[in-house]
């Protein structure tokens, strides 16, 4: 194959680093000890279950043969079922098969993708592992090796399937693609220890016994419904099963905790395998790019859902992903190399502002920072080939469009949808971003929130003392970050409370770089609560000072007052409408719980029609008259509102609920609320733009 591309491996490979680490072996020993402990306990319980089954079988046959009456047969059958059910509970995992299913996957063949198959075949040779049983493509930013797992897969060889997400392919170069695939194969390489696979399956078996019991419970329920005596036997069976679970649950917790720690070591080991064949530098850059790509893909999924409301459907979500990525690159000043952003782990970590650092003993994957540091310590790098990973795929445009269709697999699509391409998406996306973008002059002070002014008395607030004499003194970088700082502190406060309440299994944590024991969290919580309260107080004061500053310099003070008051008034309307929707939801709660008599239903519906429905119709009518809801509103909202306002729904009659009418009432308000929030933001942005315009006039005078 003349145009076959395959990046080089590192020139120097340290074979000693391919040997599983001391940490790997230590965690493996812990897992083995836990499994042995579990097996000993399980075999003891199994022996007891067999003895119980034999005893119940003997007793059941004796009861039936001794009495040979209907009741004797029922009791005997109950005893036989009791013994059999307990024994089956102990061995049912043998028959369980765990299928890894994803309706978004599409299998590809070597005839369809010859270059991809040649690439993967060469990589399996380098990693010394088997070629995948099947290769699938999916739309996601992901790559994984998977297979259907059962009890027997612990002992019998199982060929794995490979899934490649095109959202990932779209975001990395060919050297990075090789590194990511090598990491996946590294989990099953002959250089990698097989214990991880064994413990994974053992863990699933234990989980099946403890938690995956829906079918078993349904069987007992049917059995119990036959006769009262059998019901008693079923209750006894349940109690015995619960006792077995209680004994095993503590051991499972120990095994699972050790398994999670082993999984972390397995990730590091697979990273080392990948570094040996593709370069640790290439895997490190891939991991950072994948983090960014995942966020961009999520934005595209969200916007695809939005555009469906406008009867628009995307032809190629992967081109849209690149549009979103380029926008982020421009916003954050990142460099591009062959169309892909230069992303570092430091850049990714800059979006995490927690002051708390701890090692989660239940985390199955190391953090991006930990993996990057590990890859740097391995010291096996390779020259990066900047060619796009798409270079090893055939018919890429057709492939992208085919997998884009899978994005909509869970949605029932209408027939009159209009497709849009990347150019139209880019124009729409940029216009939308600009519509919600606030002036940079404010340094982010007003971003991602509304100021808390609903209780302001503008005639008093306008006289607030303002220490700042210039705009730059008021809207500093520090003040611009204040709201984000408060929000991050509130998130840390929740985490600290979880630590204090024992919800997180850790021994210690770092706060602001200083180490603390969990018992010391109370003092930090008190301090952080005071810091948050002071932050909110400062933010509220700055908001008033900003208004007073612009009021003082404005040549048209009435206009500024009018815009602020308009925002206050519309905010109140929006919040009142939200409250109305919440009240309607509360009215529905008894119906969802299924605990309403016909008389109660009539009373509830009567109150609903007299109060909430009447108020909802009045508000919808006013929104239509004020053209807040118009022909351009999505989902035929104007037509739906008109029909609802003119309707005479009964909601209840002939001793049953009219579900279609109730669903209409319950659902009509939420798209209207979306429209209100759009208008509210326009008031907000216009108010802030007016302030700046007044300042420009003031400085120009």
Automatic annotation (TrEMBL):
<feature type="transmembrane region" description="Helical">
    <location>
        <begin position="70"/>
        <end position="95"/>
    </location>
</feature>
<dbReference type="InterPro" id="IPR050083">
    <property type="entry name" value="HtpX_protease"/>
</dbReference>
<keyword id="KW-0479">Metal-binding</keyword>
<dbReference type="GO" id="GO:0006508">
    <property type="term" value="P:proteolysis"/>
</dbReference>
<keyword id="KW-0645">Protease</keyword>
<keyword id="KW-0472">Membrane</keyword>
<dbReference type="Pfam" id="PF01435">
    <property type="entry name" value="Peptidase_M48"/>
</dbReference>
<keyword id="KW-0482">Metalloprotease</keyword>
<keyword id="KW-1133">Transmembrane helix</keyword>
<keyword id="KW-0812">Transmembrane</keyword>
<feature type="transmembrane region" description="Helical">
    <location>
        <begin position="31"/>
        <end position="64"/>
    </location>
</feature>
<dbReference type="GO" id="GO:0046872">
    <property type="term" value="F:metal ion binding"/>
</dbReference>
<keyword id="KW-1003">Cell membrane</keyword>
<keyword id="KW-0862">Zinc</keyword>
<protein>
    <submittedName>
        <fullName>M48 family metalloprotease</fullName>
    </submittedName>
</protein>
<dbReference type="InterPro" id="IPR001915">
    <property type="entry name" value="Peptidase_M48"/>
</dbReference>
<feature type="domain" description="Peptidase M48">
    <location>
        <begin position="167"/>
        <end position="377"/>
    </location>
</feature>
<keyword id="KW-0378">Hydrolase</keyword>
<dbReference type="GO" id="GO:0004222">
    <property type="term" value="F:metalloendopeptidase activity"/>
</dbReference>
